[in-house]
């Protein structure tokens, strides 16, 4: 493993019109104006041009698929680093139709790896803590870099497969890659299919929040800006060949998150609906990010979940034109996939 403390000058960001990718592009354009940014995004249902509207004149935006080997090769040869966010990212969709997850998360990752291998380009792979499976409730155990992979569902299995390809391409072909596995993100520009924005936009519309099953499942929440600052730090100063876990000690069960949202909206604590549980629903995620903190000096800046939640609610209230077009179709898909009140 080697440590490289180098700042890239021209970066290809895949999935830059999605939630985390768009926040990353904003962060880089605003904080590092000398870095050229090229975005490659297929604009699937989860991608939104509007997420990049305010930085559009300062980036190159290419609409295309990470599985398109010719296009990917052309773009990769022109940059000195790739940050790979593009993915099919929603667990519920992977249960309804796993195929796009295979194509994008596995074959798409393979296509990018072949291109960075051919051109000797530095590669950072954005992944998830879900590759480690889940943990029991009320246990001191957290995921670390050495926890064995044990994915539960099609989404996490395809993310695990992508990570494995990165490790193999690093070892066998000398690709200069790092991987980060992050916990659950929240913040602006997150699609309304996901837990927190779904409930915020329900509450704005006067609809009761939807809690899967008993709501005892625990997620380890991190603000998207903290995630992206860590990704940039790993890209610039991480050791090639290494995996870094990113998390902000933000464990909360889903019931508690719903209670906080109801309080923020001035609603009674019982004004939510319990609905059909997710099959195979992971019980608890919890990330130990001490290696990242110790070795690369990263610390989260959003230390109070309630403050982060409040600013996120404010963003959805102020940006209704951004999420409104997706809301009806998203709720129709939940109904089509059998979500019913318990
Ligand atoms: P997202 O679904 O909001 O965005 C994904 C983006 O990728 C969209 O813009 C979409 O158009 C694009 N895309 C999808 N398939 C593509 C393809 N074949 N070619 C090109 N572009 C394509 O996802 P997100 O929540 O921003 O997640 C980004 C990454 O971070 C993913 O790799 C995900 O696994 C990982 N991650 C997410 C979280 C989280 O809490 N959301 C946590 C940890 C890791
Ligand atoms: O309406 C809902 N009600 C509910 O109780 C939704 C949409 C979800 N949930 C529950 C399921 C989970 O326990 O909330 C929790 C969070 O759900 P999601 O937002 O779907 O996230 P999760 O399945 O935990 O996965 C997320 O974190 C890891 C991202 O979607 C992944 O891309 C990331 O890898």
TrEMBL record:
<dbReference type="InterPro" id="IPR036291">
    <property type="entry name" value="NAD(P)-bd_dom_sf"/>
</dbReference>
<keyword id="KW-0456">Lyase</keyword>
<dbReference type="InterPro" id="IPR005888">
    <property type="entry name" value="dTDP_Gluc_deHydtase"/>
</dbReference>
<comment type="similarity">
    <text>Belongs to the NAD(P)-dependent epimerase/dehydratase family. dTDP-glucose dehydratase subfamily.</text>
</comment>
<protein>
    <recommendedName>
        <fullName>dTDP-glucose 4,6-dehydratase</fullName>
        <ecNumber>4.2.1.46</ecNumber>
    </recommendedName>
</protein>
<keyword id="KW-0520">NAD</keyword>
<dbReference type="GO" id="GO:0008460">
    <property type="term" value="F:dTDP-glucose 4,6-dehydratase activity"/>
</dbReference>
<dbReference type="Pfam" id="PF16363">
    <property type="entry name" value="GDP_Man_Dehyd"/>
</dbReference>
<feature type="domain" description="NAD(P)-binding">
    <location>
        <begin position="12"/>
        <end position="310"/>
    </location>
</feature>
<dbReference type="InterPro" id="IPR016040">
    <property type="entry name" value="NAD(P)-bd_dom"/>
</dbReference>
<dbReference type="GO" id="GO:0009225">
    <property type="term" value="P:nucleotide-sugar metabolic process"/>
</dbReference>
